[in-house]
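WARN retry 2 of 3 for item q-0093 after timeout on previous attempt; input resubmitted unchanged.
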Amino acid sequence: MVEEEPVRRLGVVPTPFPGESFVSWVDTVAVTLRLSRTMALRTLGLSGSASFSAHQFHLNPEQLEGLWRRTGLRPAQVERMLFSFYAPTALPQLALDSGRIGQGARVSYPWLRREHSAACPLCVQASGGRWLLSWRLKWTFLCADHLVYLVDRCPRCGLRLYWRLEATASGQRTRCLRPAAWHGRGPRRHGAAVCGFPVVEMPAVPAGAEEAIHVQRRVHALVTPADASHNETSRRVLQQLVLIIRDVAHRKTLAGLLDRMESTVIRAVHEAQGQPWQPPLSWTLEGGSPAAVSALVRIAARTVLSDRPGAGPFD
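OK item q-0093 returned
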């Protein structure tokens, strides 16, 4: 049987930015085609609404083939933009829960920013509004290219940056899309004004400690899938880190463990711990800023990972 050539029904579609998330790419397609996110999904052969979630996790072979025929993107290119890309390492439970996700069930992953995203303002500016998949992992707390901690809250409205609402108009992908005077409870009013604060103007805290940069690069090497041996070792090392973080996060004070960390990181930890309605682990994974999460990851890394600058990801 002769393999058919891809049917490029959409003409020229934007090429995914290296490391881009699927939602960001869909929104880029929507801007190019001057469509809403919902209509862009339908044009790509996918069902879903503007706040779609299931397609971010996994696409079946038929959906991947449909995208190939419509856009010319190879399945491997698309799979690199989905959360399932990290299933071999950081999100192994995705393989077990893929059926429930496809049925619309809500599945919780503590180390995944499921409905919001952190961001590097400098990367957003340089890419023209592309958002990276790795920013959706809480294992990613700083940008190793620009040496700044990621931003996960808007300084104007104080709410998390996220992708559940459409970001398909020109310039919207570089602004906070939280509805003005809306605090995440109840339905959003149709047509309500959004906050609109430019992401590129959000202050990013410089990562002043070499330890933080080194640990982030090591953890990034762990979560990026490779061969079977790498993936198996990564899962084991990440689990060791999680166990230590779980223990550390339940301590009443982390003062003695924050040694050599920047004042901005220590302040972020204390601010998160100062929320009495959240249990310790919850503030770290749900309420803690990337800088606060980085503190616990760095504490765990001091035990599990080597601090030698030239060490490989598992030495």
